[in-house]
Amino acid sequence: MAQLWGGRFTKATEQQVYDFNASILFDQKLFDQDIEGSIAHVTMLAKQGIITSDEMDDIIKGLNSISNDVKDGKLIITNEYEDVHSFVEANLIDRIGDAGKKMHTGRSRNDQVALDMRLYVRKEVQEVSDDLRTILETLYKLMSENLETFMPGFTHLQKAQPTTLAHHMGAYFEMFKRDYLRLKDIYERMNYCPLGAGAFAGTTYPLDRDMTAELLGFYGPTLNSMDSVADRDYCLEFLSALSIIMMHLSRFSEEIIIWNSNEYRFVEIDDGFSTGSSIMPQKKNPDIAELVRGKTGRVYGALMSLLTTMKGIPLAYNKDMQEDKEVTFDAIKTVKDCLELFNGMLETIRFNSAIMEKSAAKGFTNATDAADYLVMKGVPFRDAHGIIGRLVLFCIEKDKSIDELTIDELRSISKDFDEDVYEAISIKTCVDKRLTVGAPGPDAMKKVLDTYRTFLDEINN
Fold first, then answer.
1. Pair 211, 230: CB distance under 8 Å
2. Is residue 248 among the annotated active site residues?
3. Band of pLDDT at residue 365, cut at 50, 70 and 90
4. pTM value?
């Protein structure tokens, strides 16, 4: 059992206790960050005269050789070590001798763990941001190509008013844009370096914390050594942001699942993102969308798990905080996989525009516009509302949409209908005349698309 402590103990740790305490099976994900942080630390130690330049060179050379051997498969991280930190330090001492024992000078495992986790989460915040940029570009393309792809909009899952596919996709663009900006905010708050906080009270060594912060790409050092080792807010914020991303993906997935059903037939999911049935040969199942919807609960669980772990922990570091890693690692992988697969499905999906437009017409989504037409003819709105209600009942009995009725049929309900009603209540007219900011009319949508293109260009540079 390779561990970094033991001098105060008179007997070895029980194997079961050691196994329960060890974190090597999951914190080996922090290997690259542990190497990076250690190189920055010893570089600072040499600059401060705490170790010699030769010792620094030996340590850095040894760390790089360990890193290369792990990546090449020549050195395996095994569970004979308590954690990734003891793995690195034990192998370093084996390779370079006593100089390796000086690497940990002025550092505690508490601030070392805090640094490694912060470096890892910072990297993942950037990678998830990249995935969000990709899906935003896909949505932008869909919007640009579907300004006149008409479809019903819904409230209460019932057809309400006509809109366009571009407008519908724009709602998700807004959601994922907020997700992207949330991650940017998290990055800004978390990008401060805890290294040098020690166990929780700093150290008597003359460390240059500004230097290590700069070497590691942080804005500066954290300003309270106790909070530095006890803080996991950045993990909680990230898990919260990931949960919201999954909520957005789940809502989107739910709509695609509905649209893919035989009753709607709004979409045709590419064969590469569908599966069949082992017994029913006609089936083509939206499994990716269903799995994304299902995995949302998994990410929510990670957030609730860490919130629950952290809620009763007194300052400063406690072993409970080791529980931050597995749930965070799992949630990150889940969200990245879901974003990548969902985007692939979205890029290849086919929208049945004719069926979508017919559904808008048959669903009486132009009923509000028909009422407005009567208002423009001088009919009080409340009376117009009642007339169109009766008209819809008449259409249901005749199995027709409003614009399929003859002028005589329309006038049997109200004498205020004229031939110009057909143009006024066409699905295209209903959409085109909605020109307020954020509405589905083409002129309004083009302005929004210009704004979105500017946003995408800014975040891609």
1. no
2. no
3. confident
4. 0.90
